[in-house]
Specification:
The chain is an alpha/beta fold. The protein is built from seven helices and eleven strands. The chain folds into two domains: 42 residues, no CATH class; 169 residues, 3-Layer(aba) Sandwich (Rossmann fold), CATH 3.40.50. α6 links the parallel β8 and β9. The chain is globular. The relative contact order is 0.13.
């Protein structure tokens, strides 16, 4: 991804739009450069913020001691690959990583950015995360659920069917699931929270404004 010298300088003052394109689930996606980081934005939300993406810096900070033992990772809602950027900065790279996103433009930008940043060959999959988890057979030590449409969490993310499919993909003994949820409606959050508590052991909750980042374990 090419950034001019002027754009790079200006990006230390404010986010600089590098390009934009129509998205699959949002009308327009913007790709910005800000303080040496790549940001992916929709009308009302920032989906990625490089190694500074706070929901995952906080979650991985909590999981830091066990990260070296993680052999593989599944990211549902890939964005620009902030999850792998955060781990790269922490020197905790999980080379066997699969990133799933429904938007082919996001996949194209993310792959270009991460390939330039790192030497690892990650697997990028353009698919609806619901279809992916329903069909996938591989087990994962770490699963990230970071699925949004603008600032809204799609209703299926809190559904028993989707969460049960995610749980079935967790490694039996050392599996962990990180779920990033934005509370826009208290009733919807309480309903989702109840479903989550039925299916998982809720080990830890990190609150960042209206975000709730949940660290979940298999309760079976």
């Amino acid at each position: 991804m090419k950034v001019s010298f002027l754009q790079q300088i200006l990006s230390y003052l404010f986010p600089v739009k590098i390009t934009f394109a129509p998205g699959k689930t949002t009308p327009v996606l913007g790709l910005y450069r800000f303080r040496s980081r790549w940001q992916l934005s929709a009308a009302t939300a920032i989906y990625s913020d490089g190694a500074a993406y706070r929901p995952l810096t906080e979650a991985f900070g909590y999981l830091k001691k066990e990260l070296p033992a993680k052999k593989n990772m599944l990211i549902l809602g890939a964005g620009l690959g902030s999850a792998v950027s955060v781990l790269h900065k922490m020197n905790s790279i999980i080379a066997d990583t699969t990133l799933v996103d429904i938007d082919p433009q996001v996949i194209e930008w993310g792959k270009e950015i991460i390939d330039a940043e790192q030497q690892n060959q990650y697997q990028w999959v353009c698919a609806d995360v619901r279809d992916f988890v329903a069909a996938e057979k591989q087990l994962y030590d770490l699963i990230i659920v970071d699925v949004f449409q603008d600032r809204i969490v799609p209703g299926f993310v809190g559904s028993a069917d989707f969460l049960r499919s995610c749980r079935q993909l967790m490694s039996e003994n050392k599996g962990a699931l990180v779920l990033n949820y934005i509370i826009n409606n208290e009733a919807s959050w309480k309903q989702a929270q109840g479903t989550i508590e039925q299916l998982f052991k809720v080990e830890h909750i990190i609150a960042i404004g209206i975000n709730r980042i949940l660290i979940l374990r298999n309760n079976a």
